[in-house]
Structure formats: structure tokens, C-alpha cells
Design a protein that fits this description.
With 197 residues, this protein is an alpha/beta fold. It contains 6 helices and 5 strands. The longest helix has 27 residues.
Length: 197
């Protein structure tokens, strides 16, 4: 199974990218292979509804091929002011119609403190109408990110529960990826409407 992991913090060397890379590495235990892409490094244009602007961007063209090859996604965002990253929303709006349709995604939010729930609600409610990505029922809220999902847990701050939840979520993602392949095949020849209706 091919997994495309997307991290979407605008910061370099972000906790979101660290968490996403850790999750991507752990996904190999569930027979996933693929790439982790940090959107911060790509310098994608701001989505204006004009697909031609993206068609001229080499980073985007490479990313489109990765989206096409993916069987599943991990979508990781920091929580800023109770919202998902603009970079992630920009990415989700720019995906060409049908390219990611009926492919499952594990949603991950990253917080420096006790927060992190709001982006999950925002994404589930508003992010998948037109691109038709299927968020799985499980999600991860990574709180106290500096102390969580490091290669070695911080002394005195074990994160066994977070690790177990991660493994359970990746297993569910794997099962959804397998099950939804039949749905994707059924819609191979569909001409998708641009508005998602």
C-alpha cells in the first residue's frame, strides 16, 4: 500500500513535520510505503480557482503524481487559533477533481499544549466535499508535541497511550485502504463534477 503523508506547518523544522515523519515511519509496520511531503518546502501557489497556476508549478506536478499513486493519506496540521493550517486547506482545494476520490485519510492535529481538537472538526466538516477524500473514523490529536512521538520518549513522560492509539489508527487506515480499492475501481471512468455535486 502506498501512503502519502502530508505535513502542513508553515514553519521550518516544525513539530508537525516531526510528528508526521514519525507516523510515516511507524506506518511501515502496517505494510505501507510511500513518501512524506512537507508542504512548507514546496512553495505552492495560493489557490485562486485557476488550475493553470498550479499546472506551471513543478513541485505541484510532482505532488499530483504522488496523490495519484497513493492508496491512503495521513494529513497532519498544527492547530493555530483553533484552525487547520492554511497550507493544508490550500492543498486540499487544489487537488484535481477525482484524483483523490474514495481514498482514505488519517487526520492528525498537533498542539504544543492541551488543545488540538478544533482542526479535526473543521476538516471533517468542510474539507472533503470536492476532493472526495474519505477521512477514517479514527483521528489523532497529538498534544504536548515536543514530548510526544520522538524517537525516544521524554524521561518521566511516557507516551505509551499515544503510541497505542497511533498503531490502532494506522491499522484502521490500512483496512480502509484495502476496502476502498473496490470503490475506486467502480468510479475509474466517472467524470467528476467540479463542484462536488
Amino acid at each position: 500500500m502506498n501512503l502519502l503523508t502530508i505535513s502542513s506547518s508553515p514553519r521550518t523544522s516544525s513539530q508537525t513535520a516531526k510528528v508526521a515523519q514519525f507516523i510515516h515511519n511507524e506506518a511501515a509496520k502496517h505494510d505501507f510505503a510511500g513518501e512524506h511531503v512537507d508542504l512548507q518546502a514546496l512553495n505552492l501557489p495560493f489557490f485562486s480557482g485557476n488550475a493553470a497556476e498550479f499546472a506551471m508549478n513543478e513541485s505541484w506536478l510532482a505532488l499530483v503524481e504522488q496523490i495519484k499513486a497513493a492508496d491512503a493519506f495521513v494529513l497532519a496540521t498544527p492547530e493555530w487559533n483553533g484552525m487547520a493550517s492554511p497550507m493544508l486547506k490550500n492543498f486540499l482545494m487544489a487537488i484535481p477533481n477525482g484524483l483523490a476520490a474514495n481514498k482514505p485519510a488519517l487526520l492528525v492535529t498537533v498542539s504544543a499544549g492541551l488543545n488540538g481538537a478544533y482542526p479535526i472538526a473543521e476538516l471533517r466538516g468542510h474539507a472533503f466535499k470536492n476532493n472526495r477524500i474519505v477521512p477514517i473514523p479514527e483521528h489523532l490529536i497529538v498534544r504536548y508535541a515536543e514530548e510526544t512521538f520522538n524517537q525516544v520518549a521524554a524521561e518521566g513522560k511516557p507516551d505509551e497511550l499515544a503510541h497505542q492509539r497511533l498503531q490502532d489508527s494506522l491499522l484502521m487506515l490500512r483496512h480502509y485502504a484495502e476496502a476502498l480499492q473496490a470503490v475506486q475501481s467502480a468510479y475509474n471512468d466517472k467524470e467528476w463534477k467540479p463542484t462536488g455535486m
